[in-house]
Design goal:
Blueprint (H helix, E strand, L loop, with lengths): L1 E6 L7 H5 L7 E5 L2 E10 L4 E9 L1 H6 L1 H4 L19 H10 L1 H4 L7 H4 L3 E11 L4 H8 L5 E8 L9 E13 L1 H16 L9 H14 L5 H8 L4 H13 L7 H12 L4 H15 L4 E5 L5 H7 L6 E6 L2 H11 L12 E5 L14 E5 L10 H12 L3 E7 L26 H14 L2 E8 L10 E8 H4 L1
Parallel strand pairs: 8-9, 8-11, 9-10, 11-12
Antiparallel strand pairs: 1-4, 1-5, 2-3, 3-4, 5-7, 6-7, 12-14, 13-14
The structure holds S-adenosyl-L-homocysteine.
S-adenosyl-L-homocysteine binds next to helix 12 and helix 14.
């Protein structure tokens, strides 16, 4: 299977920077299913083509399955005779070999990565269980001109008829990351025969790569359905997430440690947890839901106090939840804490009945991870549906950032932060939501206050009016 990507921007060889692959060298990568070779059949100022060749090893596929896919052995059922065609292997190769480009990142050509450029992609022997019209229906709404040539089953035997394989050319002016994400999602969809078991974390991948465009695609339900292999439950969950929240946070782990490093000299994380705990004790809370619990550090603190009888942590990211499970020892047999703690995967921007009925809800350093247009949904969910008598929200104070060593001017503390509020901005948001949902709100400083810039972290404590009267 061969994918080529051509551009005519000047200098066209910048494609090498966008793909993080030097046009002068052929590079080979060993993946679980075989080799991937990246090379440039042409590389001039005017025109540059990168090629990715998948060399799939059918024997290695079977042999390697335990090591590369855990111990379930399920893959055996899905290994079949399909190594020579484009399939979800292409998506795996794109994610692993062109991962930065897929994510829209380029160290050396940051602005070019964000700019639509003239692109042509060709896919040789693309399996498509349908006809040319399907290819057009999928790619044209995304801005691609599509040329597809059907292949005969056997060129010498035209009477045998057409094969389900096409040679496809897509042309358009798009960001490279868009091209890669369209291929990442739609190639396996066309094929309809994914080579690995579809698990719930497939939803994560789908939303991560397609969240931005799938929502408005005329065939979005069909694509989601196919992508998730007709698993109805999964489809329903994925669609509701898309409608409400396209934003699972898989990079959280890596980025969280950067943020921790910036804040460490102030022991901010500790002080934040102390401050929130203090309020929970004051409120006499016995049950707490931790919204966006991450790796479960705060849950571990709550567990140290017997007064907290019921603790639920919710997060959108499976990877952080599995770390939390480990940290808290929930996977150990006869875990004593298992009776008090539950971890749930879910989104904070849509209603979830499992999250209501708690004495208190906390969202520690979470709001700034939400896209601004989802904040209203977050507030509605937290106050109207979760609806705890006490809700505590902490968030960075952007004014304080210039005091951090190691944080460049104008930068946010965490690469996944969508914004950081000044004290006035946080106050304005919190007061307006408090009015809307009948809460009173008090503000507290966390960490040592700078006389001019305020504290490093700010906290709002919302109390329901009903409880007070
Ligand atoms: N409260 C934790 C983690 C903060 S990082 C702590 O203080 O250490 C923010 C967390 O919010 C991440 O774990 C991220 O996965 C989660 N998150 C981001 N958007 C979310 C959403 N829409 N729904 C649920 N969790 C979300």
């Amino acid at each position: 299977m061969l994918l080529t990507i051509t551009t005519t921007i000047r200098p066209a060889t910048d494609l090498g920077f966008l793909l993080h692959k030097n046009p002068a060298r052929t590079q080979s990568h060993e993946l679980s299913f075989g080799k991937v070779h990246v090379f440039y059949p042409e590389a001039t100022e005017e025109r540059c083509t990168a090629a990715m060749l998948l060399d799939i090893d059918p024997i290695g596929l079977v042999r390697g399955r335990k090591d590369s896919h855990g111990s379930d052995g399920l893959l055996a059922q899905y290994v079949n005779d399909r190594p020579f065609v484009a399939s979800s292997f292409l998506s795996v190769a794109i994610a692993q070999v062109f991962g930065s480009a897929l994510g829209g990142r380029s160290k050396e050509r940051e602005s070019l990565a964000a700019t639509p450029i003239p692109l042509t992609a060709t896919l040789t022997a693309l399996p498509c269980r349908g006809d040319e019209r399907l290819l057009k229906e999928l790619f044209e709404p995304l801005g691609w001109r599509v040329r597809a040539t059907g292949r005969l089953l056997d060129a010498k035997m035209p009477e045998w008829g057409a094969s389900p394989y096409f040679d496809v050319e897509l042309t358009g002016t798009k960001r490279l990351s868009e091209l890669l994400s369209h291929l990442y999602v739609l190639v396996p969809v066309l094929d309809g025969d994914k080579h690995y078991w579809v698990a719930e974390d497939e939803i994560e991948k789908l939303l991560r790569h397609a969240g931005a465009w799938l929502n408005t695609h005329p065939r979005r339900e069909w694509i989601t359905h196919r992508y998730l292999r007709h698993q109805r439950q999964l489809t329903a969950l994925a669609l509701s997430r898309l409608a409400d929240d396209g934003d699972p946070d898989e990079v959280a782990l890596e980025h969280a440690s950067e943020e921790a490093a910036i804040e460490r000299p102030l022991s901010l994380q500790e002080r934040r947890m102390d401050a929130v705990l203090e309020r929970l004790r004051e409120a006499g809370a016995r049950s707490v839901v931790d919204l966006g619990c991450g790796e479960g550090k705060f849950i571990a603190r709550l567990l140290q106090e017997r007064r907290f009888e019921r603790i639920v942590g919710v997060d959108v990211s499976r990877s952080v939840l599995s770390r939390a499970k480990e940290r808290l020892g929930l996977d150990r047999a006869h875990s004593a804490v298992a009776a008090r703690v539950e971890l749930l995967q879910g989104s904070l921007t849509y209603r979830d009945a499992r999250l209501s009925g708690f004495d208190a809800a906390v969202a520690i350093e979470v709001v700034e991870h939400l896209d601004p247009h989802r904040l209203a949904m977050f507030a509605r969910n937290s106050f109207a549906f979760v609806g705890a008598p006490v809700t505590i929200v902490t968030t960075p104070n952007a004014e304080y950032n210039s005091r951090f060593e190691g944080l460049a001017r104008g930068r946010l503390r965490h690469r996944d932060h969508r914004f950081e509020w000044t004290r006035a901005e946080f106050r304005a948001w919190a007061e307006s939501e408090a009015r809307r949902y009948a809460r009173s709100v008090e503000f507290h400083a966390i960490g040592d206050e700078d006389p001019e810039l305020g504290p490093p972290t700010q906290m709002a404590v919302f109390t329901s009016m009903e409880k007070r009267t």
